[in-house]
Amino acid sequence: MKHRQGLAFCFYLSWLVGANCAHAQSSVKIEGLLDVWAGQTRVKAANGTTRTANVLSSGGMQTPYIGFGGREDLGGGLYGVFQLDAFVRPDTGDAARSDTDPLWSRNAYVGLGTNRSGELVIGRASTPLIGALFATNPWLASSTFSASFANHWAGTVQGDTSFANSLRYVSPSFGPLRLMAHYSLGEERADGPDKQKGKSLDLRIDYAQGPWLALVALRTINLSNNEDGRKQQTLLVGGSYDFGPAKVYGQFMRVDDRYRNRLSNVDRNGFSTGVRVPVGQWALIAAYSRSTIDDDFATTPRVRNTWSIGGDYFLSKRTDLYIAYLKDTLREPQGVQTSRAGIGLRHRF
User: Fold this and answer.
1) CA separation (Å) from 187 to 27, 109, 223, 336, 344?
2) For the chain, which terminus, N or C, has the lower number of CB atoms within 10 Å?
3) Residue-level pLDDT at 24
4) Containing domain of residue 180, as a range?
5) Is residue 110 part of a domain?
6) Is pLDDT of 246 > 80?
7) Gap between the Cα atoms of 232 and 228, Å rounded
């Protein structure tokens, strides 16, 4: 029915403006996932006081979203693409990850591509850097129970998981190699203070061969505020190896903030390691992350340790139940400790 309606519209367009419908082939898909978990979070402050909260929230294993995408064959090997993805919060029914998010905060782009030269999209798009972090840790796309996300990304890496006002290019594969570049115009200020604020660039190269994945990803972003000259650079080197009984993961991550006043500079270095073990319908998951923070402020925590364990039980290819626990500790001189435990259900469609 959709195909006949599309042909009817195309012939009407041809009669109206002389468009050629002979080679046009298009497809549109609707996809997404819902993920809700229940559990408890506990925060122990440096002075020993503890706050505990019972939680029912979204996105334990992956941030929920609904998306619409399409691809059209334009002839001669050229194709057009579009994507509209909105994050959702099924625990409350609200749109986006928070009240300050735009509606289509995951993806909102159009683009062109060929199999020989790669694909270029324009708009808001998911970044190569967050894709690299998800691909090289055993919790994959979890922002709630991933030790790597909690230790290296959350509250540290600037620029979000998607770039607005951006161009993203993904090359075709050159044997085991693939390249990605993603540039954002930031806040598009013509003049005045901090006019370069938000301008950012992600670069990434992947090597995928058999059970091996190795990658390098880099981000540079202008964060200047009142002309303080702040710029942040993030480097991620990661990989994985699947040897059958288990898949092992590893990451090294460096995040540096630079200011005009060198006394404000901050250096962060860290690593993560983990394993994902299939056992029947289960995937057993364990991960550990550690990072150090170096600056000129005596009150800054110097060491951060994070670990998480859990299991993911697949009822089908689209539906899984999971249980997870994460512990995150900031030390020297502060002793803030956060723990999170929960069980959840995820369904893809």
Assistant:
1) 34, 17, 11, 35, 37
2) N
3) 57
4) 24-348
5) yes
6) yes
7) 12
